[in-house]
Amino acid sequence: MPSVITNYQKIRSKTEELCQPLEIEDYIPQPAEFVSPPKWHLAHTTWFFEEFILRKYKKDYQVFHPKYSFLFNSYYNHVGKRTLRSNRGILTRPLVCDIYDYRKYVDEHMQDLLNSGEATDEISQLVTIGVNHEQQHQELLITDLKYTLSLNPLYPVYKPDYSLVSDMAAEDLMIPIDAGLYRIGADKSKKFSFDNEHNAHEVYLNDFTISSKLVTNGEYLAFIEAGGYEDFRFWHDEGYTWIRENEIQKPLYWHKMDGSWFQYSLEGLVPLNPDHELGHISFYEATAFAQWKGKRLPTEAEWEVASDKFKWGTRWEWTQSAYLPYPGYEIAEGALGEYNGKFMVNQKVLRGASNATAEGHSRKTYRNFFHPQHQWQLTGIRLAK
Amino acid sequence: MPSVITNYQKIRSKTEELCQPLEIEDYIPQPAEFVSPPKWHLAHTTWFFEEFILRKYKKDYQVFHPKYSFLFNSYYNHVGKRTLRSNRGILTRPLVCDIYDYRKYVDEHMQDLLNSGEATDEISQLVTIGVNHEQQHQELLITDLKYTLSLNPLYPVYKPDYSLVSDMAAEDLMIPIDAGLYRIGADKSKKFSFDNEHNAHEVYLNDFTISSKLVTNGEYLAFIEAGGYEDFRFWHDEGYTWIRENEIQKPLYWHKMDGSWFQYSLEGLVPLNPDHELGHISFYEATAFAQWKGKRLPTEAEWEVASDKFKWGTRWEWTQSAYLPYPGYEIAEGALGEYNGKFMVNQKVLRGASNATAEGHSRKTYRNFFHPQHQWQLTGIRLAK
Amino acid sequence: MPSVITNYQKIRSKTEELCQPLEIEDYIPQPAEFVSPPKWHLAHTTWFFEEFILRKYKKDYQVFHPKYSFLFNSYYNHVGKRTLRSNRGILTRPLVCDIYDYRKYVDEHMQDLLNSGEATDEISQLVTIGVNHEQQHQELLITDLKYTLSLNPLYPVYKPDYSLVSDMAAEDLMIPIDAGLYRIGADKSKKFSFDNEHNAHEVYLNDFTISSKLVTNGEYLAFIEAGGYEDFRFWHDEGYTWIRENEIQKPLYWHKMDGSWFQYSLEGLVPLNPDHELGHISFYEATAFAQWKGKRLPTEAEWEVASDKFKWGTRWEWTQSAYLPYPGYEIAEGALGEYNGKFMVNQKVLRGASNATAEGHSRKTYRNFFHPQHQWQLTGIRLAK
Amino acid sequence: MPSVITNYQKIRSKTEELCQPLEIEDYIPQPAEFVSPPKWHLAHTTWFFEEFILRKYKKDYQVFHPKYSFLFNSYYNHVGKRTLRSNRGILTRPLVCDIYDYRKYVDEHMQDLLNSGEATDEISQLVTIGVNHEQQHQELLITDLKYTLSLNPLYPVYKPDYSLVSDMAAEDLMIPIDAGLYRIGADKSKKFSFDNEHNAHEVYLNDFTISSKLVTNGEYLAFIEAGGYEDFRFWHDEGYTWIRENEIQKPLYWHKMDGSWFQYSLEGLVPLNPDHELGHISFYEATAFAQWKGKRLPTEAEWEVASDKFKWGTRWEWTQSAYLPYPGYEIAEGALGEYNGKFMVNQKVLRGASNATAEGHSRKTYRNFFHPQHQWQLTGIRLAK
Q1: Which of C204, C237, C325 shows the shortest C-beta gap to D342?
Q2: Subunit partners of chain A (3 or more CB pairs within 8 A)
Q3: Which of A196, A288, B32, D38 could form a disulfide with A340 if both were Cys (CB 3.0 to 4.6 A apart)?
């Protein structure tokens, strides 16, 4: 299975490449429950291959360490007990070098397996899930790291010229889409897609228009300056409570210093560029902004149907849609059935991809999902009406 | 406007009739933030007419008491500051008799207004909203009261023969519905409906089947006895956390005593009848039960499309659907715009009505909504596939 | 035992007399865990006689209601399970009239017992504890009620001319006391005292001076106006955290309205009188005030030794002393052993009595105790150096 | 000032020697608010010299880094704003090597200053406080590290043969002390002592007896096996609530595995030795154990008066005494006034020293203090009667 191996190697190396600028100290802290330390991402993605492939399919495979399954399982109840999610940052051991040894050990065994005659289509499909899973963690590794570094009063630089922003100074057009019956979702018989994209199905849409570009920092600044955070009329009731209880007055990572706006980025603290697309925005803020503009967020079906007509891929775009099963959705048997389905309540769908999304890990049917208050992903806003 | 007046009087009297069995002590406590005391319901529904009609449309109207607007506003930010929701149970004053005087005062002024030449279509529409609002509070008054009394180790009786249950011993059929384009929602130009039912719009549905009857106590008991509360595979991740953190092992109001099951009801503590429809179930539990049965909850569109083919109205039925705006939904200007729209996040739609719903206050397009963990309403389960 | 009976009757009637101005609504709410509703105080003091005397010593005594022991036990683990302290305000039943019937029933049985030949010295001692216990609850009934009514925006009046304040306009003298060995505490062989006053014992005191009068509202206002709540130097670390987290800037019940100071009292809202003694102050605030004045709070031994030289009895006076066992203190056998000893950690001793203390329920050896943050008792400040 | 320099150097090196077995990963996590990471201890003790000595007394001194004062101030409000105590574990930067550079920089400047003609008695006294402060942090560094490592399922070894235990198999004698007037506390004119040990003063003690040895693991195990954690009669009310809410059934670091008892130590997980002295016990547990034994904890005055008659120094011994000012205690001017006085509420005094206390950092008048629930220090029990 040469292409499977090549892809496996490429994606595994990419994860380590992302960690290259890190100091050992950077691998450890977990400043919030929703964030995981780089050490944990490196180990967890490795455990995924050990647990779901090597232990089952590789003859006489010996696990690297008997306690790693307990330490690096994320949330799979099928697999048994695990470290509390909030305790990922207290683990001084295994050392960072132990984790790199673990990766090497698993990679070698995976290559053996894939090169051997034992490799089957079933294994190949699991590898595909595993590398897609690792790509998801590549993005999380970056967004989690940004969150951790951002809390440091020294504003550390991860890497110069690592901006994750794009210029959005073009004119905004509202693209019209006609009412009608459309087909959305992914066909599971075709190339890889996650179970939450199945089944492909028909939806009826009314006429709508959708913006050709993402909302910029400058446009959002106008909302702030117009008192948007103080005016309850634009907010969900829960959103308004959330901004008051958490004293939120601006997007995550924005800082006003001596009258000027700055933004913490992985390049360090930089002046806010009004022409760049907005990022790190919650669903509550996205909705309030849209309301203030006299517009709304698109539904995920609208987004998907219109997506060929605009440029996307620099920000995960909040939709109005709740994260719910598609018609015909079925939870898979066993641990991998826990991948998506059990999170289908109280979360919102985001569409597109971001500047931090792994290459090749995006498609127009992809359904990302987060709770409405989360800001630490590279989230943005596209308006509809 | 004789029919408006008659309806107003009928519904206002009904609220007081519901309070007839109460002692003064029963009017006061608020044991949880989501519950309001009867005194508050009586006053708040009255304040609604005073605030939105009398103050604006009745010439020289003097409010009954200058602080009542602060005390009895529920959540209308437009109207100004208000008592914290969690503080409704600390108000020993105004006395219960003062509240009845307040009702009388407002009713007299409302009748004057409606009998006078000043009454317009606009007023008539506001009265319609006001009486529908009062009907919603009639049901809440009963479910809140049940919650409060249920916490009392003396298991007080509200009223003998007030059971709120029905017999469901009939055979269960799965009614088939064909795929196709259907129209759901309410046409705002026709008779009264809430803004969240607008606009009527097309939806495309796949083939599905839906149960002819509600799940019974006996069926749910089988789920409990099969270990349903211990098996993570049936639960949303948040649902499973919720049952463990709150030590939930059974529907609200069920008690196992010396090996037999009882249920607290407004008639007091009674043996659990396996043939009655289940009630007081959370969305999490409803979903887990459906999962265990190899079925699922219907979407709200499926429910509405099929609703003419089954009997409904004894339990609010959880749907799979999140509470979201319909296409074309617009938030109204002013305080009444806060009625529905600002709650459209993190809540689930319930369809139907319950044994405690006011007469005439149900229709197949009605969208009720609660958070997925709430159990204190008369909620039930209908399965789909 | 005629004197025991007379005293019993007098104190029991006094409790009901205190409730005379109440409406039924006032008997119910519990706005904070440290507060109990009047209904609960009436029942709990009655339960004390039923549980500790009638059930043990009255032949064939039938309890008034089998569940009252569960409902009205305060904290006696020996006696078994009980209503959660925080749930005292949710009990709509038993009705207020039921509680008065309960009091009558127990009083009649107590009188029978005390009139009968069965009454012994042991019973007489228990009655003495019971009436002292009831006197403690008389004061709590008043302070709890004040707390509940104070939260009502209508500022209800409990009773006109019920001020609980005294004039303190006299000159302040610092009374000097010589160093030496002094005896403090109560001799248990003499007249009634609580176990926490035992044993009488020697203490050595250095020279000190103590104020002849309590701190007034006016003096405390000067502390506020001098920025005392903003200057960390005067505060315990925990006290400073407490005022910031709870946004405390003034004594409980003080209100600044249009530039003038008012105080909620059981007479309603009244202008703050600068010559009246300060009340409703926490230990943290008392210490910060003393620190600002360049003085300190007295220890409980200093207070007791000097107490014959100044007027006391209008405010419970915070001392520097922690509530700890005296030398030779022993926890009594059985439930009454839980009366005092188990609270001897993290609390401070208050000495004296207040304007709300029952007549005859004070002596210079009396040790009252509360947590340092509590403000809802009639607490005040006397300085020492 | 050669002796001052020698002592300074010796103690500063000792801190680094304690860190010698650590990996970089060990320097980072903070698993609980009461714990600080090694990196923080290394930096904070250095900041103390920079802030209180070099900035004030060394001509033209340039601080090592402008933000370190914000990062490494512990609780001195006088010095200004600081990192939240709970955020010490999120700082990936400064790197561990930066902190060692910081130490070197400050040490060089300190040596310059002490060698120069500028060094005065005032500076010498501040250096004495600084090295005593650093010795306190040496012990905290060890106890904090133990807490962090103990949470790791891999049970890491800090250093072989680093047991912090002693054999206590000797016979227990109750040493009698006669009643009388005794002098306790430290004379501030003599050699160094902390302000909380001042003034030396007279106390009157009744006759008492005190144990010649500390309670052992074996004795405490008997308490557990006798059901001590289930019997409310032995516990303070707050202690009993604390053990139930936190599900505490044994001392910190004890583990029962397959029927045998083990103890996590800095040597790793080792079998529990019944003859070793008990450690890591809260005040609540210490009191409950004493109560079960029919004894009590000594007061701090009793402990100090009797301390020449028994061996002490392996465990910090809980006393019955609250941490309160001694007669004549005065808070010093400026930031060092925050060292002790502001913590004098809700804490208990511990006397003695432990196997982790720095050499030369103990004396019989020393007053250590912690909250009654804290277990992570090397605390033990000596009984009195």
Answers
A1: C237
A2: B, D
A3: A196
